[in-house]
Amino acid sequence: MNENGTKITTFKKPKAGSSGKHYAPEELVAGILSNNIAALSKAITLVESTKQEHQAIANRIIESCLSQKKETLRIGITGVPGVGKSTFIEGFGKMLTQMEKKVAVLTVDPTSSKTKGSILGDKTRMQELVQDPNAFIRPSPSGGSLGGVTRKTRESIILLEAAGYDIVIIETVGVGQSETAVHSMVDFFLLLKLSGAGDELQGIKRGIMEMADAVAINKADGENLKAAKLAEVEFRRALQLFPPKENGWIPKVMRCSALQNKGLEPIWDVIEEFVKTSKANGFFERNRQEQNKSWLLQHIEQSLKNDFNRDAKIKKMLPNLEEKVMNGTLSPFNAALQLLAIYRNK
Amino acid sequence: MNENGTKITTFKKPKAGSSGKHYAPEELVAGILSNNIAALSKAITLVESTKQEHQAIANRIIESCLSQKKETLRIGITGVPGVGKSTFIEGFGKMLTQMEKKVAVLTVDPTSSKTKGSILGDKTRMQELVQDPNAFIRPSPSGGSLGGVTRKTRESIILLEAAGYDIVIIETVGVGQSETAVHSMVDFFLLLKLSGAGDELQGIKRGIMEMADAVAINKADGENLKAAKLAEVEFRRALQLFPPKENGWIPKVMRCSALQNKGLEPIWDVIEEFVKTSKANGFFERNRQEQNKSWLLQHIEQSLKNDFNRDAKIKKMLPNLEEKVMNGTLSPFNAALQLLAIYRNK
């Protein structure tokens, strides 16, 4: 817990005058490994920084943290706004900390740079979990593209796991490709749903159903219970139409009421069953390996693109050629050839 | 029409001994502009070639063709296997040629390299359209990634339009991201469906509904007519749940029977209405401009990646670092840094 007695860390930028020494990587690593929240938060801030000097330190920290081999679990949670994600994570997280698990919550929200952290920026969210000494909550990093946000999230996962968090929950809202991004960094992907045709279609249309390892129909309480039971049957039927998953897992459909703290344990049981079977058949490990590989390739791709876009000559030429391409006076392929020729001879 | 009296051009690779002179770009351009099918086919073969010398010629041809400003229409057609795409395109294409339109059909099928052109490789498909002097049918280019196939398709569109084809139909089967790729290169996107719950969900889950400008429920004939009418109502209701399109167009739902040649004219009426309204409000032109711009950026990205992957040092280093990353002994970010440092100092 930091000096304010809260573990919500804001997007504090390192002060202009602060020297690299202030962030001695060895100290921060030592701090992380002893679960010092201030050190962990500082390291995540370095990960999130766009300054090259900070990134260099962050890379050294990540490398040290990576050597810590721990049994961890990464759970992705998604659902449309209003489905009750915060309430769910609050209840689910508290249940896990009561089981002596240490739980961290991260968010992937590419819109947070526009809305200043809409998902978790509001400190009134997850009020109880925030105060739980075995929980750590961090809002989505600000600044930019989904690629940037996911990279920072992936790096933060490594730090959190080194700091002793057994379970990292990654929350996302259904914006653009953010679900796909979160799916690519977790072991288990949970889709929260509401009963009601409109919402069902909203979820299905973005291909999220295919990614889900389980679907939980939330707000299955009070007058809503009957509709939730119907939705449960419908989703189970719908899921049968999908081709079987490569890991052999058959996605489960459940009901819960995060508000009333009902149905959360069965969801955890399903996750445990998933972990058990997918560790037994090797999928768990293979999936993480494949994820690592695709992080590498994505990171290279992003860097190559950044190099190109930052090139002085390209910056000068691109707008002009782009306009010609848009006007149809130059083919996209020829414009690309011209730009690449300039870039290669830099 | 070529020497065999058929316009299906196979994947003939230029012979090893053939010189660049054999493909004089000026001659080919002149041939294309006079709608010489042999010249057009040869030019498309050059576009599809992976040889750098062929690509250089292809680029010159494309540039010349691009200067031909013509009123053209690009229609994307998708649907699951068995929905009757070939029969539909055969009937629809013939209807258009009877209206004095010249029609070209291309396919985007990233699986065709594995299955040797599964979609259109079979010469028995579209037997009547193939023989129509006002139609030109070309199977999916072989060879590789979706990115490669879509690039070749985009370039072929330019050649076909220069050759005087008013309407280019781009067909795809619902594999991976191929619908998104086709959507990114057409003016109008038509989704073919069958009545029946299984198929409906299959279509919806991949987010295709969102892209469709019209949905046509095919095989609405005989015993199937009642179910097709029901599906029509359901789809219309489902489409209402989607947010309105940026061009203000409300997607239409129709029934047809390609086999019985029924309901094809109303589909053409809808397309004409779409073209009229989207030209009036400027969307048609703006959409093509945006497409051109994204072709440029995608092409640059792909080239940067290719450069990297072809680099001798990278080729040597990558497998080793990739393995370390997969094993978890090296972070993806650090591996990327190492590779990029080597690459930048090449």
List the quaternary state of the chains.
homodimer
Based on CA inertia axes, which overall geometry of chain A fits?
globular
Strand order of the largest sheet of chain A: 3-2-4-1-5-6-7
Helix content of chain A: 40-55%
CATH fold-level assignment of the largest domain in chain A: Rossmann fold
CATH architecture assignment of the largest domain in chain A: 3-Layer(aba) Sandwich
What is the total number of structural domains of chain A? 3
CA gyration radius of chain A, whole angstroms: 22 Å
In short:
Two copies of one chain form a homodimer. Chain A has 346 residues and is an alpha/beta fold.
Labels describing this entry:
homodimer; 346 residues; alpha/beta; Single alpha-helices involved in coiled-coils or other helix-helix interfaces; Rossmann fold; Helix Hairpins; 3 domains; seven-stranded parallel sheet; 53% helix; disordered N terminus
Helices and strands in order:
Two copies of one chain form a homodimer.
Chain A (H helix, E strand, L loop, with lengths): L24 H9 L3 H12 L3 H15 L6 E7 L5 H14 L4 E6 L3 H4 L11 H4 L4 E4 L7 H17 L4 E7 L4 H6 L4 E6 L3 H9 L2 H4 L2 E4 L7 H16 L11 E4 L8 H17 L2 H28 L1 H16 L4 H13 L2
Parallel strand pairs in A: 1-4, 1-5, 2-3, 2-4, 5-6, 6-7
What do these coordinates show?
Chain A is an alpha/beta fold. Chain A has 3 domains: 1-68, Up-down Bundle (Single alpha-helices involved in coiled-coils or other helix-helix interfaces), CATH 1.20.5.170; 73-280, P-loop containing nucleotide triphosphate hydrolases (Rossmann fold), CATH 3.40.50; 290-344, Orthogonal Bundle (Helix Hairpins), CATH 1.10.287. In chain A, 53% of the residues lie in helices and 11% in strands. Chain A is built from 15 helices and 7 strands. The first copy, chain A, has helices spanning 25-33, 37-48, 52-66, 85-98, 112-115, 127-130, 146-162, 178-183, 197-205, 208-211, 225-240, 264-280, 283-310, 312-327, 332-344; strands at 73-79, 103-108, 135-138, 167-173, 188-193, 214-217, 252-255. A 7-stranded parallel beta sheet of chain A has the order 3-2-4-1-5-6-7, sandwiched between helices. In chain A, strand 6, helix 11 (225-240) and strand 7 form a beta-alpha-beta unit. In chain A, helix 3 (52-66) packs across helix 7 (146-162). Chain A is globular. The N and C termini of chain A lie far apart (49 Å). At the A-B interface, helix 3, helix 7, helix 9, helix 13 and helix 14 of A face helix 3, helix 7, helix 9, helix 13 and helix 14 of B.
